[in-house]
Amino acid sequence: MASLNVNKRESTGKYDAFNLRRAGRIPAVVCAKGRPSVGVSLPLREFRAFLKSGQPLFDLVVDSEPPAKAVLKAIQHGTYDTDILHADFSLVNENETLDISVSIELTGEAAGLAVGGILEHEMRLVTVRCLPKDIPEVIRVDVTALNIGDRIDAEHLPALPNVAYIYHGRPTVVS
To answer: How far apart are CA 121 and CA 106, in angstroms?
Structure first.
């Protein structure tokens, strides 16, 4: 399981956040149910490497405290660039279900591509409800049987043990 090290920060405000970013760090907040939120900061380089790992559930280490299970709730980016300005983390209880977004990955080659069709990957994330230990890293959808005019809707996503999909209506995953 991935681990992310953060440091508590005492000062808050836009000037403190500006100084942190200039020093190569990102301001962030750690929230937990029934506890006050804690302001933290972490190195930008380490955070980008963590994001590439794609781990939905990870160990969050605040200063020298014991690691706690956490999920990344939100990332704030700059208006005109891809700079990461802020991150929100949420500590999770291993015995409570949570809702989290998981990536959808297409596997195989659609049969319709051989006759000139175009594959449209319309839904790239889906929200799942499960215990933290059951969070899938990615949801794989096989598109080999898709011909021109066919589609796979969210209701046809593969069944995973102890995982429920959450969506509204009848969204199309791929067509």
So the answer is: 8
Q: What is the pLDDT of residue 156?
A: 92
Looking at domain 3-91, which CATH architecture does it have?
A: Beta Barrel (2.40)
Q: pLDDT tens for residues 107-128?
A: 999 888 889 889 999 999 999 9
**Stated pTM of the model:** 0.75
Structure tokens at 55: 């781990």
Same fold, 3-91 and 98-174: no
Question: In 10 A of CB 97, how many CB atoms?
Answer: 16
pLDDT of 21 higher than 90: no
Residue 80 is given by DSSP the state: S
Number of Cβ atoms within 10 Å of the Cβ of 104:
20
What CATH number does the domain located at 98-174 have? 2.170.120.20
Nearest to 103 by CA among 87, 79, 121: 121
Cβ atoms 145, 122 nearer than 8 A: no
Helices (H), the chain: 14-22, 44-53
Give 63's DSSP letter: T
